[in-house]
Amino acid sequence: xxxxAQKRGFGAALWDWMTTVDHKKIGILYLIGGGFFFVVGGIExxxxxxxxxxxxxxxxxxxxxxxxITMHGTxxxxxxxxxxxxxxxxxxxxxxxxxxxxxxxxxxxLGFWMFFFGGVFLNVSxxxxxxxxxxxxxxxxxxxxxxxxxxxxxxIGLQIAGGGSLMAGINFLxxxxxxxxxxxxxxxxxxxxxxxxxxxxxxxxAFPPLxxxxxxxxFDRMFGGNFFNHTMGGNTIIxxxxxxxxxxxxVYILILPAFxxxxxxxxxxxxxxxxxxxxxxxxxxLIGFLGFMVWAHHMFTVGLGPTANAIFAVAxxxxxxxxxxxxxxxxxxxxxxxxxxxxxxLYALGFIPSFVMGGVTGVMQGxxxxxxxxxxxxFIVAHFHYVIVGGVVLAILAGVHLYWPKMFGTMLSETLxxxxxxxxxxxxxxxxxxxxxLGFWGMPRRVWTYMDGQGWNTANMISSIGALLMAIGVIxxxxxxxxxxxxxxxxxxxxxxxxxxxxxxxxSPPPFYNFTQTPLVRGLDTVWIEKQEGNKTGLTFAxxxxxxxxxNGSIIPFFMTFGLFxxxxxxxxxxxxxxGLPLLIFGLAWTFVSMAVRSLQDDxxxxxxxxxxxRDIDNANKGGQN
Amino acid sequence: xxEVEMYKRTPLExxxxxxxxxxxMRGQVMMFSLMIFMTLVSFTFVVAHLQGVExxxxxxxxxxxxxxxxxxxxxxxxxxxxxxxxxxxxxxxFMFTGAVFAFLIPLTFVTIVxx
Lengths: 626, 115
Ligand code: HEM
Ligand SMILES: [Cu+2]
Fold this sequence. Notes:
CATH architecture of chain A: Up-down Bundle
Largest sheet of chain A: 2 strands, antiparallel
Distance between the termini of chain B: 60 Å
Number of helices of chain B: 3
Largest sheet of chain B: none
Radius of gyration of chain B: 22 Å
Oligomer: heterodimer
Radius of gyration of chain A: 25 Å
Strand content of chain B: under 5%
CATH class of chain A: Mainly Alpha
CATH topology of chain A: Cytochrome C Oxidase, Chain A
Number of strands of chain A: 2
Order of helices and strands of chain B: HHH
Number of strands of chain B: 0
Helix content of chain A: 55-70%
Bound molecules: protoporphyrin IX containing FE, copper (II) ion
Strand order of the largest sheet of chain A: 1-2
Order of helices and strands of chain A: HHHHHHHHHHHHHHHHEHHEH
């Protein structure tokens, strides 16, 4: 077995990707899946902005508008941002810690397929014409009143996708705890690995509440439950608590890996060790912990009372402190560094002011009395887009440019990359800066249209033009990707020339077993240290060339998830059709049988022999194909 | 990794190994009896309360039961689920963090949030 590309039919290639348990391939699958949903969510966003382009517009109906904003938010958070970040974590983190794969390759593949089928399930709602329409927060009083199957798609689709996220999180945790190369102590882990670690821990604690909430919602809507129905002794506010106990950690699950990517970029392209590394680690952990203590800041206006509001306001503002620590450390990393203005670095430099603005508006909203004015206005929309687009999406775009050569062995065009950046960055500020004022001027969020003569026309127009600029930026990126792939100019191990961590010391793309021998880690930025000491390869090995044990691929994760997908439709239709219940049972049985097959079969994996490894090493030394 | 390596213990190591195992076994049995004993005591408390024995009010019995339960959980974790052994620092950290969240969040609910 070898990963050297042989000429294969399309079917064989497809089978290979569907059965893969290789963390690198799964990473790429996450990026493709997340990228696809990013485009879907982007199209929804464009329609929203077109509808709001001018007053009294009737491009879409009010109902369709609700569908669009709900699916835009849900898609972007759960199906675009998270999976794309998972893609980077999957691909890069094991390389950074010198591992050959994640701890549970099978579960890794299962996690991907659950995300994928969950996402498809959610979007099937468009084909059925009954789309979730209670907002991405799906507050219970709205979602229980919503007719049709829209909210059912939301509850079941997110349940499936959320299960996948939980698996991915646990997998990353175990990998980082158990599979670090010799010498890679916790305090020598690259910051992207650290942020992956903390984000995964947050997933571990935050997703179970979501699971519970979604089950409650499923029971209420499909199985006659009354958890949120106040007329039957339920409580509609519980949903809000459960959702935000998950929801606020979720936004930090998104931003922490983004911080990680930017930390790597700052130190690579300033050619300096990250300033204040221990403080960065501490701040990351602290943010992770405090992230669980502030959920009620989304509910200041619910009427929790002054005591609760005051306590949560203070806790919320406390989070700004470790975040500030990070900002200053990044600035001091750049300070006095020999800066290279590559595309990823441009994104990183653009990120700092953008994210700071989002943080400042966050603290403003954290002040409970002020939030009474701001809540449910466009100011909120501006805030979270500044942190999510100005933080997470910029990090994703930066990460695509930074890691593209590592993942595909070709370098994206820097010129086109910079054009993408300019369009996207200008478009982003053009779209969202003005929305702060729209909020001050009283425009509520989630409105289908607005009347003429309230002074909102120009601002909305500017905002819509900005969205167009962002779309142009993304299209340039796609063109860039296609052109680069067609040209296919291969690059070496360290295409940026200043790589500091282990992933930059192995071929691009790495062989399927990653490291011929497990590396020895001698400090933070180990490759940089080795290179400073004259070791051109950047690696010192901790073991001789030995046989490597690798896992076999498997189609079972695909089937397990497919069963859940089917069961979802059964649950949805069991009340009105006779085939619903049998379908539900059939789907679950399918999943359990797949699980049983997995448990009963003895799959011991295979070995890459010493001879094969030696041949690869010799080839690489000859400068042959890698 | 690939080949199974056979490793023979020296007599001294074998000795130590046997002594260690004996100690662990003794610890396990002792803790097990202690837990059974505590369970018996708990039942006795409840019976005493139900029989109306003087002094065994529910304000005494309920906190005591909780206390015993907590001790049992700790014993279970540390002795039978090996948490006292080396290399369990990270699982401990995660479990305690989980316990803190599981305590703090309901506490917030019952103190300041619910209405
Ligand atoms: C300094 C840190 C931050 C503070 C103090 C903060 C504070 C707040 C507050 C108080 C609200 C509620 C406003 C309202 O609905 O009236 C809010 C909303 C929101 N924040 Fe933040 N935030 C911070 C960072 C972030 C980050 C890093 C993200 C995501 C990456 C984020 C994403 C969101 C989202 C999505 C919402 C809107 C949720 C909704 O109602 O749909 N925030 N933030
Ligand atoms: Cu929040």
